[in-house]
Amino acid sequence: MLISTAARVLKLPVASVLAACLLATGVAGCDDHAARGAAAPRPGPSPHGGQAAAGVLASYPSSIDALGGSVTVGFNTDCPDPFVDCPGNSWATGTRPEVDSIYLRLLDLNPQLKDHNVNDAASGTTMADLDGQASQAVQHQAELVTVAMGTNDACGSRTGAMTPVAAFREQFTRALDTLTIGLPQARVHVVSIPDLYARWESFHTDPRAMKAWRSVPFCPTLFIRPGSHAQKDVDRRAAVRDRVIAYNSVLAEVCAEYPQCTTDGGAVFRAPIIAAEFSTHDYWHPNIAGQATLAGLVWDTLGY
Q1: pLDDT in tens, 206-249
Q2: Are 85 and 289 in contact (CB under 8 A)?
Q3: 85 touches 123 (CB < 8 A)
Q4: Rounded to an integer, what distance in angstroms lies between the CA atom of residue 124 and that of residue 146?
Q5: Closest by Cα among 90, 102, 194, 192 to 147
Q6: Entry pTM
Q7: Distance between CA 148 and CA 193 in Å, rounded?
Q8: What is the CA radius of gyration of the chain?
Q9: What's the order of all strands across the beta sheet hosting 144-148?
Q10: What domains can be seen in the chain, in order of their start residue?
Q11: Inter-residue contact 95 to 107 (CB < 8 Å)
Q12: Is the dihedral of CA 141, 295, 130, 55 positive or negative?
C-alpha cells in the first residue's frame, strides 16, 4: 500500500528538478560534482535531492540485496552455457574476482558483510516486478539495496509496448514505499537505465550483432528491422531513447523524496559503449568486462 506524500519527507521542487536533469541527461552545468556521477561526502546532503538520513552513509553495510533484471543476475556473462543467469558474475553481489563487485569492494571494508550478499533480481522483469523484489529485500533485512530496473519497460519485452511513464512512476514509488516502511534504516541506491539507443547506434552496422538481434530480439522496440532507416523505424528508435530519458527523470524525482535513497547521477546512462564489454551471444548484455565496468561506475557514486 502506498504511503501518503505527507508521510514521506517533504519534496524540494528545485532539488527534484536538478536530480531529474542529472539522472536523465547527465548535462554538465546542472551541478558539476553530481554530473560526474560522484556521490556527496558522508554525512550530509544526498546529491540527488534528499537529506541523507542519520547513519545511512555513516557506516558500511553488513548486508546487501540487489534488485533488478538480467544484467544484475549476470545473464550471458561468459557463462559455461549461453543464455543463462550467472549471479556469481553480478556487478552488485557477485563473487568473481575479475568483476570486483560492490559486494567484494564492501567486504574489504567490512568483514561482517561476508556471505550476506543476496540477489533478488530476475531476468525479464519490469518495474511492475520491483515491489515484489523489494518485499524480498525486507525479508532479508538488507542494509544496502541496489536497484537497477527499467530496461525491459523501454523494450516492451512482454507486451511489445513500452510501459507508460505514469505507470512506471507509480510502480517505482510503490517499491520505495515498501523499502521505506520495511527497512527504514537501509540505504537504497538507484542505478540509471543505460542509453539503449546508443547500443543500437554502436552495433547496428556489425553483421554479427544484426544476426544475433534478429535471432533473439532482447529489445523488440529497438531491434525490429534493426538495419532499417525508414522514417517510421527512425522515429520508433528515437521514441525508445526519449522514454528511457523520461524513466530516468522519474527515478531521480521519486528517489529525491526519500531520505535514504540516492542515485548514480546518470553515470550508467552516460557510460560509453565499448564493444569488448558486451556478450557476443546477444550484443546486448554486458560480459565479464562489462560487469566490472558497471561495478566501478556504481561504486564511484556510492561514496563509501
Answers
A1: 999 999 998 887 899 998 899 999 999 999 999 999 999 999 99
A2: no
A3: yes
A4: 17
A5: 192
A6: 0.83
A7: 7
A8: 18
A9: 117-119, 64-68, 144-148, 187-190, 261-263
A10: 12-302 (3.40.50.1110)
A11: no
A12: positive
